[in-house]
Design a protein that fits this description.
With 427 residues, the chain is α/β, with parallel strands linked by helices. Helices cover 53% and strands 11% of the residues. The chain has one domain. Strand 7, helix 18 and strand 8 form a beta-alpha-beta unit. Bound molecules: iron/sulfur cluster (2 copies). GO terms for molecular function: hydro-lyase activity.
């Protein structure tokens, strides 16, 4: 589709910088080819991921805009965090999209508004906007931010000067009183989305949305479970992309494709077929989310001879491990159930965050990981600070541990590769 159709008029109508955007697409396409298409023994059904990658800035955007024009969708709602409930957007016939922010762009312009020592993820979303190269940002009618880390909450003050924004207040402590506040916050968001989309949320609408998103999360759970096998049936790189795609692609299409991938991986497990040989060193990734096209670390681990078998991260298990209880009958009950489900996400913004440590150790055991690689994006105080607790939990569980601080640039790739190879040799 992307090759046959000229999408430039569409990008132009979104106010994008065509020359810079062509350059970005070229670079990402090259990276995708080098990292994903050079993998051996990929499951055949990963062709869906190639489809997603090919259409990410083109066919998918056209599809969303066409749906709006045809009156099949109301608004496009962007967000940056897995705390923003997509069920509410879907219940209003909106299209939820994750605003990925996984590459450096227009850094000079960004540093006119944000400090240089800001994490790359924040700089990236500001840079994609200032550089006019993200069709998801440009096509979003509303962007929902959230008060998680300090960097994000202050950066949203700047972003709100560029886009129609609404910011949710996320608690920093998990207890009964903050759950009450959080439930009220989810209801405030529902009212905002209703107003924005011009739709009243009915029990039928919300039930259908909860069911659809639960189906997507179940498919991802099913695929993730196959990765406990040795040999692992699918790579960490492809698995990471399934969750990244879940923030962007159409929910029913993605659910169907992930279920197909899971079915193929189940057959591969049965047949003892893997993406890497049996006995390959198995890594559990934990840490900051890896947004498209930040595939650097997974690529390094797997090219160094390891295989990533799980991700304790918002671009991993935190996105799909919990479902919304489907027993609610009224809108109020269902919104409460949504709030309860999202409240279980153990972001490093919470204090204390003991449950995250338990989840990491449990995942490492369930997936038979030989080691844990804990990653913080540069200048991310939360995940840097929490890495000490992760190391302690890994040590107590007797699991080899490695901490990495990195950014989106490729300059540290050689040094990281040496460190990762050394780590894989010791485990
Ligand atoms: S790490 Fe925290 S702030 Fe980032 S997406 Fe996850 S929950 Fe949101
Ligand atoms: S990586 Fe860290 S600093 Fe950056 S947005 Fe996420 S939580 Fe905030």
């Amino acid at each position: 589709m992307a090759e046959e159709f000229d999408f430039h008029p569409m990008w132009e109508s979104l106010g994008m910088n065509l020359a810079d955007h062509d350059m970005l697409l070229g670079a990402v396409g090259q990276m995708y080819g080098d990292m994903f298409l050079t993998q051996n023994n990929r499951p055949k059904s990963t062709s869906y991921l190639d489809f997603v990658a090919t259409n990410i800035h083109s066919g998918r955007i056209k599809e969303m805009l066409d749906k709006k024009e045809a009156g099949e969708a109301t608004k496009i709602v962007g967000s940056f965090c897995v705390y923003v409930p997509e069920e509410i957007v879907l219940a209003c016939d909106g299209i939820p999209v994750g605003l990925c922010s996984g590459a450096d762009w227009a850094t000079d312009k960004v540093e006119e508004h944000l400090p240089r020592n800001t994490c790359p993820l924040i700089k990236s979303f500001a840079g994609f906007k200032l550089g006019e190269v993200c069709p998801y940002i440009e096509s979003s009618d509303l962007v929902v931010g959230e008060n998680t880390c300090d960097g994000k909450k202050k950066a949203y003050e700047f972003f709100a000067t560029q886009k129609n924004m609404y910011v949710m207040d996320i608690p920093n402590v998990h207890d009964e009183s903050t759950l009450v506040t959080w439930k009220a916050e989810v209801k405030k968001l529902a009212a905002k989305i209703e107003e924005e989309c011009g739709v009243t949320i009915t029990p039928e609408r919300l039930k259908a949305a909860i069911h659809a998103v639960n189906g997507k999360r179940r498919a991802l759970q099913r695929l993730a479970a196959t990765r406990a096998a040795d040999p692992a049936p699918i790579s960490g790189l492809d698995s990471l992309l399934t969750v990244q795609a879940a923030f962007m692609d159409d929910t029913p299409r993605l659910t169907g494709a992930i279920n197909e991938m899971a079915a193929e991986c189940e057959q591969r497990v049965e047949a003892g077929e893997g993406v890497a040989p049996k006995g390959t060193k198995r890594i559990l990734y934990t840490g900051t989310p890896m947004a498209v096209p930040n595939w650097k670390l997974f690529n390094l681990i797997e090219k160094a001879g390891g295989v990533v078998v799980g991700e304790e991260s918002c671009t991993g298990s935190r996105y799909y491990k919990d479902l919304v209880d489907e027993s609610g009958e009224t809108v109020d009950e269902m919104l409460d159930a949504i709030a309860e489900r999202y409240f279980k996400i153990n972001c490093a913004v919470f204090t204390p965050n003991h449950q995250r440590m338990k989840d990491i150790v449990q995942m490492a055991k369930d997936l038979h990981a030989d080691g844990i690689v804990d990653v913080a994006l540069q200048f991310c105080t939360l995940y840097e600070m929490e890495s000490f607790a992760v190391e302690k939990a890994a040590e107590e569980a007797g699991i080899p541990f490695m901490h990495i601080t990195t950014d989106y640039a490729g300059e540290d790739a050689g040094q990281l590769q040496t460190r990762i190879e050394a780590f894989l040799e010791t485990i």
